[in-house]
Write a structure and sequence with these properties.
Elements (H helix, E strand, L loop, with lengths): L7 H10 L7 H21 L9 E5 L5 E3 H17 L2 E6 L6 E2 L7 E9 L10 E9 L11 E9 L3 E6 L4 E7 L4 E6 L10 E3 L10 H11 L5 E2 L5 H11 L2 E4 L12 H14 L3 E3 L19 E4 L1 H12 L1
Parallel strand pairs: 3-5, 11-12, 11-13
Antiparallel strand pairs: 1-2, 3-4, 5-6, 6-7, 7-8, 8-9, 9-10, 13-15, 14-15
Helix pairs in contact: 2-3, 4-7
The structure holds 1,6-di-O-phosphono-alpha-D-fructofuranose.
Length: 317
Amino acid sequence: MAQQWTTLAEHILKEEQKIPKATGSLSLLLTRIAEASKIISTHVKHSGLIGIEGLAGKQNVYQEDVKKLDEFANNLLVDTLSESGQVFAIASEEMEKPKILKDGKAEYSVFFDPLDGSNNVDNNNSLGTIFSIYKKGKDFLQPGKNQVAAGYIFYGSSVMLVYTTGKNVNGFTLDASEGSFLLSHPNMKIPKKGNIYGINEGNYNLFDKPVQKYIQFLKKDKPYRLRYAACMVADVHRFLIDGGIFMYPSDSSAPKGKLRLMFEINPMSFIIQTAGGMTITTTENPLDLVPSQLHQKTPVAMGSSDDVKNFVKFHKK
Ligand code: AFP
């Protein structure tokens, strides 16, 4: 008998029915993000054919060159969310300031990185989209622990959407023939320990001593394998499935590292922690940080709890 798959839409609805006072607003929002990601994935998969490779000819707030595909994904998500009627504010890694919408009833804000790993566009490597959703609070910038949902879409050898509302983590694979995300990875759990690490080791000489010593430890005796895609979505997805540790530490040229708290670290930490893993800035759980700036960065390590605990030990020695 053919397998009966649960679609993302069915899954979201089932989850909503478990919450007596649910208004359907969050479900609608998640569905709209998934729909937008299907359009982004079509563009990603055809980028070499539709003239959307290369640079858009401008720089973002981090002085990084914006790619055409970055700009496309950003505009699509802004339009989709603006038209959804469910959000009062939208913040993007690619926009200096949030877009505030005058929809009085809307109770959610969405933070996103439209195209994570955009340097991979022109060489046909992995890309992602990351999103993070908060309920209206006293402050616009809230700690990551207040997220009501977070997820990513991984445009890899298949397209996957992984999300959590804090209870469990579920992964859906896009069935391109039907155009539906199907529940292929229910209740994802990260292994307690792995034997893979991911870091931009080209920066080794710039890292602090504890990070250098930890890397030396990983290479000793029965060495860990190094895997690095330069796309946080692809890297963290690997560690969620296989276990191990992903790191983007500070270095002498970037004292706060490179990764952005609101757009990359908080949503990915929410997923990893809900799946039973651990994330740390070196001293703190990033989800506890009270953000002071929309585009703030912080060093991070995340993955299997045993591996991250060991990483922390090297900072205490
Ligand atoms: P973009 O979001 O600007 O494409 O950057 C990707 C990223 O923030 C993250 O996905 C990677 O882990 C990291 O940069 C790679 O940075 P390095 O090239 O410095 O290793």
